Amino acid sequence: MPTTLPPVSELAPGHRGVGFFLCTRKEERPTRAGSPFLLLTLQDRSGRVPAKLFDQAEKARELFGEGDFVKVEGVVEVYEGRRELLVAKIRRVDPERDREQGFREEDCVPCAPRPVDEMWAELRARIADVGHPGLRALLTRIAEDHGDRLRVWPAAMLVHHAYRGGLLEHVLQVARVADALAGLYGADRDLVFAGAMLHDIGKLQELQYERAASYSFEGTLVGHIALGLMMVREAAAGLASLDERTRTQVEHLVASHHGALELGSPVAPASVEAMILAVADDLDARLHQVRRAIAEDEGDGEFTGYQKRLGRVLLKPAGV
Amino acid sequence: MPTTLPPVSELAPGHRGVGFFLCTRKEERPTRAGSPFLLLTLQDRSGRVPAKLFDQAEKARELFGEGDFVKVEGVVEVYEGRRELLVAKIRRVDPERDREQGFREEDCVPCAPRPVDEMWAELRARIADVGHPGLRALLTRIAEDHGDRLRVWPAAMLVHHAYRGGLLEHVLQVARVADALAGLYGADRDLVFAGAMLHDIGKLQELQYERAASYSFEGTLVGHIALGLMMVREAAAGLASLDERTRTQVEHLVASHHGALELGSPVAPASVEAMILAVADDLDARLHQVRRAIAEDEGDGEFTGYQKRLGRVLLKPAGV
Amino acid sequence: MPTTLPPVSELAPGHRGVGFFLCTRKEERPTRAGSPFLLLTLQDRSGRVPAKLFDQAEKARELFGEGDFVKVEGVVEVYEGRRELLVAKIRRVDPERDREQGFREEDCVPCAPRPVDEMWAELRARIADVGHPGLRALLTRIAEDHGDRLRVWPAAMLVHHAYRGGLLEHVLQVARVADALAGLYGADRDLVFAGAMLHDIGKLQELQYERAASYSFEGTLVGHIALGLMMVREAAAGLASLDERTRTQVEHLVASHHGALELGSPVAPASVEAMILAVADDLDARLHQVRRAIAEDEGDGEFTGYQKRLGRVLLKPAGV
Amino acid sequence: MPTTLPPVSELAPGHRGVGFFLCTRKEERPTRAGSPFLLLTLQDRSGRVPAKLFDQAEKARELFGEGDFVKVEGVVEVYEGRRELLVAKIRRVDPERDREQGFREEDCVPCAPRPVDEMWAELRARIADVGHPGLRALLTRIAEDHGDRLRVWPAAMLVHHAYRGGLLEHVLQVARVADALAGLYGADRDLVFAGAMLHDIGKLQELQYERAASYSFEGTLVGHIALGLMMVREAAAGLASLDERTRTQVEHLVASHHGALELGSPVAPASVEAMILAVADDLDARLHQVRRAIAEDEGDGEFTGYQKRLGRVLLKPAGV
Amino acid sequence: MPTTLPPVSELAPGHRGVGFFLCTRKEERPTRAGSPFLLLTLQDRSGRVPAKLFDQAEKARELFGEGDFVKVEGVVEVYEGRRELLVAKIRRVDPERDREQGFREEDCVPCAPRPVDEMWAELRARIADVGHPGLRALLTRIAEDHGDRLRVWPAAMLVHHAYRGGLLEHVLQVARVADALAGLYGADRDLVFAGAMLHDIGKLQELQYERAASYSFEGTLVGHIALGLMMVREAAAGLASLDERTRTQVEHLVASHHGALELGSPVAPASVEAMILAVADDLDARLHQVRRAIAEDEGDGEFTGYQKRLGRVLLKPAGV
Amino acid sequence: MPTTLPPVSELAPGHRGVGFFLCTRKEERPTRAGSPFLLLTLQDRSGRVPAKLFDQAEKARELFGEGDFVKVEGVVEVYEGRRELLVAKIRRVDPERDREQGFREEDCVPCAPRPVDEMWAELRARIADVGHPGLRALLTRIAEDHGDRLRVWPAAMLVHHAYRGGLLEHVLQVARVADALAGLYGADRDLVFAGAMLHDIGKLQELQYERAASYSFEGTLVGHIALGLMMVREAAAGLASLDERTRTQVEHLVASHHGALELGSPVAPASVEAMILAVADDLDARLHQVRRAIAEDEGDGEFTGYQKRLGRVLLKPAGV
Lengths: 320, 320, 320, 320, 320, 320
Prior knowledge:
Six copies of one chain form a homohexamer. By secondary structure, chain A is of the alpha+beta class. The longest helix of chain A has 25 residues, at 272-296. Chain A has helices at residues 57-60, 95-100, 116-129, 133-152, 166-185, 189-198, 203-206, 217-222, 224-236, 244-256, 272-296; strands at residues 16-30, 36-44, 47-53, 69-79, 82-92, 207-209, 213-215. Chains in contact: A-B, A-C, A-D, A-F, B-C, B-D, B-E, C-E, C-F, D-E, D-F, E-F.
């Protein structure tokens, strides 16, 4: 009986064995010799890995599709400097039978490193700490009305925090950063926290998410900033404790959080709180990319390879 | 008894007499010789003119303020190539007494060249022509709920259509342009008209307007695009005939009508209808500026002076 | 005897048979297994399709070249989400013999959907409608001197209207759009039509065109705007009815039609007519791309794939 | 005997009396009536105020010059919405005589709100906390070699922290912000503090500063980033405990702290520490401007006037 | 009898006397005290100086106009750091009478430092040196057909070489620079010289120039690059020795000499010769500005004041 | 015994034989048929050529590595329009044995066309010609301290002069260009030469170079401009004849030589000398690319293929 493959995050050249994955991409490509092969992306809780299947691809392609959980046997090789899994066997998971062999759906979906329940508890505690009654009421209502999604949603399709619970992870870290800055600059900490919690709330409607994320119809056409504003306005309706001035300031935080018009905000930050929020959001998104790029780099030099999106190479910490 | 001055749009050097105006700016400036003078902006229905008062400025400044209707006696001179009214006497209007001498409030507020009732009737007729029941219901509700403002609002503070009825004038011309383009490219004319009517609807909340326009609190902090989206969403609530897909397309038209992120739209136009609307809006705003610049140019050359906002000089039509 | 393949615009996976095409690209590529294959582009009147030949490529490559009409037998497959023709047999057309089997040169060249003669008649009618005698004389002379090319030229190599008659199709639509806008803004319709007809006239020298388009020597070095200006200047020589002021305005329309210096116009539009022309040209070029992208998209989602040149996805009309 | 004027930061229209100032600008301007007047800038510890002298300007201009301490008698007026001091009498300070009347040099130089000794003690304490021996040695040496200047230098000529002790104030706040961020992202806190302390160290050579700041010869020609790098390199020479890798990382922090090439950094931030430093520096500079703009705004609206450098109006906190 | 004033380039504060000038600007401005004064620009061969007339301005304004030669008596003062002439008496020149006192028209028009005949002889010699018969014929014809203007035209209205003979001076220096570069890079020296001589030839039509320069109708609407191309095309007509390839290369040099589309060239330089020409033209225009800014700077610091157009201060050579 | 292959710069399709090369790239790629092949870059003194090995790749890959000198037998083919060497046999060079067959290390490293000793002599002669004693001393010291590297270093990794002696070749040509320009504009020729010699001196530390170039640790983190400034400052220490003003001007030349902040210079050129140097450096780098692109183009059209880095096609000289 074949060995079990380690999690994706630990796969290294030479590893050989069996594993369960979610297949998020399946494309057929003809080789130049005339026969087809399959180009796949496989993922588990810890990450994604490209895979290829050359033998009997025509037959194999009928056995599963994109979005299916699959059982795979193969070996890890390096191709153009990146790991990939050379697949020997692959088939769709049979939930009943395979559960006995250790298959669990939740192990095949990338997710935030910290448990969702723990993050959710932290968010609720922070809400409870808000001193302004109207803001607290607003945030509580949103947590209750949208909690199902907010607990599990990713923060993006690709760029950063693109996994289960990623939005919540991002929201909490932005809240921490923005709170520290608010303290150092005497800004209104309640407002700043409200902005941190709500700035990306429109992503709950902009993205569709079941095993994987994609843009919704209204997400593509209206975008998460405008959708978020409408969610805030709806949640604020009828909250007696929330005065109009405060609500408008919250809306300003959501509207301006990209920091500049050319980045998609219809207005630029016009208060100390809004500037702090925009900086915290941008910094967290960028550092998340940086740290992932460093973690995923497999070269042995002092710098990562060239990071196209950031336009530079990155220094790897000495101890990494 | 002194002559009556002609309307502002016809004032020319040498004109001398009495007139009624709204004073929209009053600043005191010390002359270098030590004495103060007053720098004013006066307006009537047809336009605005700068004015100065040198004699007994200290005494005169108590007699009226910004936002007051005033009775003025003076003479038109040219200063640095521009007309200005040199004021001999000025006082606040006494509505009762001055009405007998011809003062009427509505004559002192700049407004669109075409009567409001006529424009409003055209808008209502266009709404009635909309074939899609849900869209017609949406537009009808907005016309009813916001008609009071929509009839009289200006389209901007300064740049274009910045006068009573200017928003309605702009909306109707954008509707005409966009309808012509929709016809030539087989686009959905109902959608395009809805976009034309609603694209700037948020200006009803972004601007405050009584005798003059200024930005509101939420206008400054959220902007007319997001405010307009929330107004559309609110008006759409409970309209059984308006399906969600169509509503989202209308929202897309409003959201993308500036044509690009760096111009303040949170999303770029993604449909033929949205591209047509963005072009129609931009063209109308620009041509309004161009035609005003040509009309107001007082030089006798073939070109206007340098237009800073447009970055060029403009060719004056041969017959002008 | 094998079936006849449908026109390129209707080819779908699984179609198998024989057809006549123009081969506009032939590149040899070694497969990784060591043997060569041929990468082709085949076109007929209705469009272009990529094709590949794997069997006996070395032998086949001698049998035809780029620019040859070819007879092809093959089957349509899907590769990376796009149709391509897998070629089984291919040879150069033998005009005499193949004509009997239905080969016609003109069926192998992509061309505008509307017949050239019909478009040409519309252009001549519009010229006849021009009221200004000097402009009418100028346009008539150009139609006569350059008619041979103007009837059949493409408007571009790649981006839009890149087929036989594309320039004329583009000119007529720009004329319609610009005329509608001129009517709505009281612009000089004769001038606007002259601009629409002549704005891209330099393309007759910028592009070489026989079965396919390419840049000419002077097209690459001088560009169609400057070439067009020189053609207008030459055609205007000796036209007594054309005053210098009008000729210069026409030249301005040609010179400024890209709308801005960074887009290649040596001067920016300085008249209402020039602004209208620049908007009409840009809108028609963009909407042509948009409509083609929507027509060619083969996915089944509500949006097209990402359009690199436009920087966005596009909403497909509900009925498409 | 005339009243004593309050500090500049508290001067309000109507205040009348005598005060001691440093005159940092003296320009003579002819009035249009033919006679000259003097345009002055006067400053004390708390700020700057424009001043004008109309009476006997010709005689007065001989009595003092730019850079002189002056005794002034006058009254505060408002001109174009800004305070200015209308000077009745002015003469150069006579240190001996005027000291009895309360003149003190240090009261006439704008300086940071917090006492220099207190700030300096905080800096030394932070240096002592650095764990990395080489870094601590480097920072200690720089504090010792450049302490005279570092204690009192301004951070800029105009934009932010442009007063005595401003550089130290800025350095300490950047250190606080960067330390908080380093904690939240697991960055190297010693390195981050070194960057915060040294990022603007080149300003000690870029700016000349006695009673007021100006650019030095080498400051204009080489700039503070390159000058700072050379100061670090020099201070590092012979420090056995400072390895080359660490020194290079410190140099990277200094070199990249403007965050992007177009902002004057010869390299972009390539480590988590460098990104944090660039964000902290930019945020502190911007928020310093924002808070000063809000503090100095004298209007009574909810927003400040338009801030040219920031390109927007700013929301004033409710309690201000 | 009053002293004669020195040439404008040598006027210094305190100079007092009489001189002849061309008045190129005359504007009336009311002083705040109510009376008008005249703001003038006076020029002679060596430069321009601002002037003001306060006494009896109303009477004086009738005595001359813009474009008139004037006789002036006055004294030089400094206002806001710049020289200006305070006018005591002014009247229009009476050519007959004043000629006896030394008035000569040509002394009142700013012109290039080197005599026109000498520059012209150099140009003709360079043309004679061209080895390529077709190019030599083309340049000879242009020198003959346009020599009247080419000898005296300015190169610009304001920015650089904005005086009589300035275009010729610029052309010769660009020719020298480009020739040196062509030698160092093995480029075609005949082509490079043709480009240097012709690159700005369209300025002969873009600018109107009698005593002062202004934009012509076609200059404003078509621009000097396109006008120059049409002049080259016209001059090339019928020159048997000029092959089409060479003519097109010359046209490319003219078309691309601004170096980039956003600078107004419809095509970018595509040959070594075109790149050299664009660099030579840009360098000469910039260095002319730099050297004039340094020459005109009247401060005593090591740097000039801030140069707005160049966006920096400039180091003055030690010996200046 | 097989023929000897010609140098890389002369390799043409059909050439077949044996040669010695440096292998600078070796990547293994799986073919779609399942077997691996090797993708190589081989270089000799005259240039680089891509190569592929399909037969027995697995075995061959053990026989040599990147950075090894190799003996190769193969044939030149054309793939996608570019030459490549199809390798039949390859092995690591055995220095002793192969030397007899003509192998020499120095023949396998790309280098400048002109002999290093000749270039070095020219540099020393130019240094000796410098009139300013302090500058001469500075340049002499740098030539002595850094001569080992300066003689052989490349000027870049990829873009221009990326071969042995390339930096020296670039320095000498920049010196020639800048000297010619300095002569034509009366600039300080000693300073300009110092700038030409030192502008890229930091590349000696930015790049590592043995058989091939790569970025060093401090090169990546600090960049060659700042490194060069520190080298100049170090070399200047203790030179009695070098006054501080002159040293700062040299530093300005180094600091500003990229011409603008967004190109990586921390300050913009502020003197005639600095502007000349920046132009000379940019021109030489660009023309080097242009001439190489023209030399390497193998098409037979009048233009090269599209040059991505330059954003255009290039005209090939008629005789090439």
